[in-house]
Amino acid sequence: MRPKFIFALLLLAFLVLGAALFLKQHLENTAAPPAGPEIAAPAPVASNVVAIIVPPPAPAPAVTNVLTPEQRQAAIDAETDRLQQWSMNDDPASLSNILADLTNSEKEVREAAIEATKQFGSTNAIPALKAVAANTTDPEEQIALLQAANFLSLPAISDSSVQLPKTPEQIQAATQKQEQRQKQNPK
Amino acid sequence: MKLTKLASVAVVAAVALAYNAKAQVSFPLVNLTISGTVSYNAASPVDNGTTTKLALTKVSITIKSLIGLLNASPTVTSTLMDVTETNQIPAGSYFVYDLNTNNVSYDPDPYIGEYVAALIVTNKNGFSFTLVGTDPVTTNGYDYGFLNIYEQNLIGSYSQNDTTRAGSESDLTGIEFYFSDGNGNQLDDFGNGSLTWSFGKVSTNSVQKTTLSVNFTAPNGFSDTVNNNAAIAQNVKCSGKATGNVASAVFPFFLWWIDFYSSLPE
Q1: Tell me, what's the ipTM?
Q2: Nearest chain B residue to A151, by CA
Q3: Which residues of B touch A181 (CB under 8 A)?
């Protein structure tokens, strides 16, 4: 009888243990839905990763905007060349382009724009030069802008008001002067 | 014997290289801006009964106005026709400063009488008129302008990498700016200026990418006239910048230039 009793007891114990394991597993499975969000949690994590990955493209434009000194100088030189070309024209669009560069972020370009304004030779640029001068904190640049405005207020050496027809006396005096110079230096 | 032959070959190669380098000397043409003012007496004194007054008239100089003077001068337009087959400098033209040896020539003006670097009036469409030269029709020399390193007044400082031969140089020089329309308007002004060089690495064909900046100022007039009136120019400035390939043999430029200038026939 005793061995039978022990065997029955052990069997019962196994059954209880098995039932316990079954119940435990069952409970874990039914608890799975709440665990869903935990599994889905990588999604936000994934989005965080995206957020982390995304920033590199964001600085990318910054990287492209940060030019090497050579690239920056090349850009300045290119704009300076354009200013020189515009300054030789006589159209309003060229003057407009020149005046726009008076407030360029590069000092070298602004200086070239001031010179281009003088070379363009239009009194229409005077108000713009004075306006930019009024808003400039750099005293040297302010002086250059105002000097350019004064320069434009002068008649050009080629103006008809300057190149008045010569009197015979003037022509004779000029000829004499030329001859005198040639005698002074016969080299 | 073998050593002699080797030495001969080396000498020939060196000469060939030197000749090649010299042949490649081609300075970038510097697109110039020129500005300044000139003062003169435009009129006779005015007496209002109590005071007699005579004012100075000040006029501006720009590239456009200088070209305007050239185009209005019968003397210049005659030369222009002979040299370029057109009697007007096209609108939009500009001045370039040319240091190339083929355009350094003896100024035929007996008053000037020296070698000068050329000023060229040019444009994007191929027009080109060197302001010092010889009229091909009359065979007479003409001189309407130049911008010159004044004789040998050229000094400099430089730094050069021993291996790559890249480097930079800053030169100071005496300058003369001359312009004449042969029609009563003349600027002959002296001053000083700087030539700033940046030389890249020497390439396999012995040239260096080179940037040249010129900045010349003639602060005071010397012999100026406006419409045949005695005049004084002030603050005549010529400046510009250009990049090109230059023979490595010209670095440092100021030493090369003095050597070149000395070699010119008297």
Answers
A1: 0.83
A2: B60
A3: 111
